[in-house]
Each structure stands twice: as structure tokens, then as C-alpha cells.
Design a protein that fits this description.
Elements (H helix, E strand, L loop, with lengths): L2 E3 L3 H6 L7 E3 L12 H9 L10 H5 L3 H17 L6 H17 L8 E6 L5 H19 L8 E5 L6 H12 L9 H14 L4 E5 L9 H16 L3 E7 L9 H9 L1 E5 L7 H12 L15 H8 L3 H17 L7 H6 L4 H6 L12
Helix pairs in contact: 4-13, 5-6, 7-8, 7-9, 11-13, 12-13
Length: 360
């Protein structure tokens, strides 16, 4: 997102911008989910999130209408902010790439990657960045070929083999009707993915698959069917999958014997955490924010978020939007204290942790 202006310097000095002179390309915040091919491609095609602050004289010269539009644009920018390439993200991308290379000529059981960890520790972000990296590389290698290099689905809760097959079909846009049986849907999915040379399949929320239940066993068998009929590397992510029943029984032992497990977790308070805070702070677009003040609160931010990158992003983004909405244009300790984030992080934060917000 980039704010552009076409006004002359004299217009700015007089504060006389009109709608045709001041252009703000406001984006539609609605996006197709990444569990559809259109949504996934939109995610892959999206460039780095960016926005240029107006110079101070131009900012204060804006009319009420254009100031509202400018602020709306900055709110949209901060609602997404940036994806920080943490050590977790880098490790998942590295492990995933190694497995796709190892599996590319494999004719028997291919190795899979399982990303496991507590909630809000960056699992979904990491596997999506793996998928995006792989798809971009594939497009560069085969620029003239129409491929679907990556499929991204989520494991249906209380699912069944048919529900799982429908998740694949929905991603590809293959119509499914109530009268279509499981084998018909599965065959159509495998045909399309083989023809489109899919070589990376990402299955999120794998903790919904519990091998201690009959339904979980059936869905696991059908997932195995896909792994055996598709020349692709499968990547799974879920909450604490080691204790969710995924490795239960003979089926679980087979999964365990064919998978590489990568764990995620809260970040310790160290140099990487400080660098994460600094990276997020550098992305802020607030007119009165003093650079380095957020980085100076790194220890406090670690205590507030219990080292969770997801909670840190939530806290900073929400505080930035509040600073825009109330016109303070800066993030300070009082605003951070007054910003409520996810309940898990709030429970882990030491008392006292918040004060009354001071908004003009």
C-alpha cells in the first residue's frame, strides 16, 4: 500500500487538495481464504506490505475528508503490518525445501514434515511462508507452465474421509454434490493435482485428526491414500500433535516413522526477541512515534506476551491502530498497558499489567 499525491507544492501550502489531486489507493480488506486456489494465489502474489508517510507539512495540511482517507489507509496497513522471518519460519522453510528435494524422485514412502507447538507460536505463518517460497521458486523455474505447485487445506474438525476429500476439491474449485461418493471426489482431486504437477501439500490443524477414534483412523487412512497417489511432499501443522493422538497405534507409528518433526514455542528473551521487536517497530507508520522507544520496551513486551510472536504482533498492531484513531500518533507504555490482547497472554502477564488508557 502506497500513498501517492499529485498536488503541487503551492496546493500543499494552501491546504487546497481536491479529490482529483490527492489519490489514496484504498484496498478492499476482504480477501478470499487461502484454503481456495484464488485466495492462495492472492497470498502468494501479494508484495511486501508498505506505506509511505506524508511529510509533516502535507499531513497537517490535509482536509478533513482526505485526512480520514489517509488514516483509513494507515489503519488497513497496520492491520496486516509485516511477516517477520523468525528463526522458526526460516527453519520450517529450510526443512520443507530439503524434503521436497529428497522426495522429488522417491517412488516409495515419501517423508513428511510435521510442525508442532503450542497455540500462537507461529506454526501457520511458518507453513504458509514455506508454501509461498516454494511456489515462487517453482514459477521461476517453469515460467511458461500452468501449475498448481502448492495446495493448502485445513483438517476438518470431527471430520470424515469425504469431508477431507471435499477440502481438497474446494481448494481446486472442483464441484462436489451430495450424490458424489468419496472415491469419485478423490479420483478427481488426484487427477487434477497430478496434471497440475502439485509437489507440496500443506495440511493445517492436523490436531483435529485423532487416531484414538474410529473417525480419526478412517480420515488418516484416506490422507494416506492421497500421499500414495500424489507425487508430493506433505507438510502438517497442529497444536502439540505429540499429545493429540496423531502418533497413536500402528497408524501413528507409521506416521512417526515417515515424518520429520519440527517444534515451535515461545521465544526466550534474547537478542532475537529484541530484533523481532525492532523489526516490527521499523514497520510502524505513526507521525509522532519516537523510533527506538518500542525496542526499549522489549523486556516488558516479552512479559506481556509470554514470548509469543502472535501476541506481540497483535499487541503492537492494535496499539498502532488505536494511536491513529485517537490522534496520538505514538505508542507509549500507557497505551500498551491499556491494550487488551489474547486471554492466554493476559493470564501469563505479571500483575499489575494495565492502566487506564489516556486518549484525547
Amino acid at each position: 500500500m502506497v500513498v501517492t499525491t499529485n498536488s503541487t507544492d503551492s496546493d500543499a501550502a494552501n491546504g487546497s487538495e481536491c479529490a482529483s489531486d490527492f489519490e489514496i489507493d484504498l484496498v478492499d480488506a476482504r480477501r478470499a481464504p487461502t484454503t481456495t486456489l484464488a485466495g492462495w494465489r492472492s497470498f502468494v502474489n501479494a508484495g511486501p506490505n508498505d506505506l509511505e508517510l506524508l511529510p509533516e507539512d502535507r499531513h497537517y495540511a490535509l482536509s478533513e475528508q482526505h485526512r480520514a482517507a489517509y488514516d483509513e489507509h494507515r489503519v488497513a496497513y497496520h492491520s496486516e503490518l509485516i511477516v517477520v522471518h523468525t528463526s522458526t519460519v526460516k527453519d520450517v522453510i529450510h526443512q520443507g525445501r530439503l524434503l521436497t528435494l529428497l522426495n522429488q524422485r522417491e517412488i516409495s514412502a515419501r517423508r513428511s514434515l510435521i510442525v508442532s507447538g503450542p497455540w500462537a507460536t507461529g506454526k501457520t505463518t511458518a507453513i504458509k511462508m514455506l508454501g509461498k517460497t516454494h511456489e515462487v521458486r517453482t514459477r521461476l523455474r517453469f515460467p511458461d507452465q500452468e501449475r498448481i505447485p502448492v495446495v493448502y487445506i485445513t483438517t476438518p474438525p470431527k471430520g470424515s474421509p469425504r469431508k477431507l476429500a471435499i477440502e481438497f476439491a474446494n481448494f481446486l474449485g472442483i464441484p462436489t454434490g451430495a450424490r458424489q461418493n468419496l472415491s469419485t471426489i478423490a479420483e478427481a482431486v488426484c487427477h487434477v493435482l497430478t496434471e497440475c504437477r502439485t509437489d507440496l501439500v500443506i495440511v493445517d490443524e492436523i490436531h483435529n485428526l485423532n487416531l484414538a477414534t474410529t473417525a480419526g483412523e478412517d480420515m488418516s487412512d484416506h490422507l494416506k491414500y492421497f500421499t500414495e497417489h500424489l507425487p508430493a511432499t506433505f507438510v502438517y501443522a497442529g497444536i502439540n500433535v505429540e499429545s493429540s493422538g496423531l502418533f497413536t497405534g500402528l497408524r501413528g507409528q507409521q506416521i512417526s516413522g515417515r515424518s520429520v518433526l519440527t517444534r515451535t514455542g515461545p521465544f526466550p528473551f534474547n537478542d532475537e526477541w529484541k530484533a523481532l521487536v525492532a523489526t516490527i517497530e521499523s514497520a510502524l507508520r505513526l507521525h509522532e512515534h519516537r523510533r527506538g522507544s518500542l525496542t526499549g520496551q522489549a523486556k516488558y513486551l516479552h512479559q506481556r506476551t509470554n514470548g509469543s510472536i502472535s501476541s506481540l504482533s497483535h499487541l503492537v498492531r492494535q496499539a498502532a491502530i488505536t494511536a491513529i484513531l485517537f490522534g496520538t500518533e505514538a505508542i507509549d507504555r500507557a497505551l500498551l498497558d491499556a491494550t487488551v490482547i489474547d486471554h492466554a497472554a493476559e493470564l501469563a502477564a505479571p500483575e499489575p499489567r494495565r492502566h487506564t488508557a489516556r486518549h484525547a
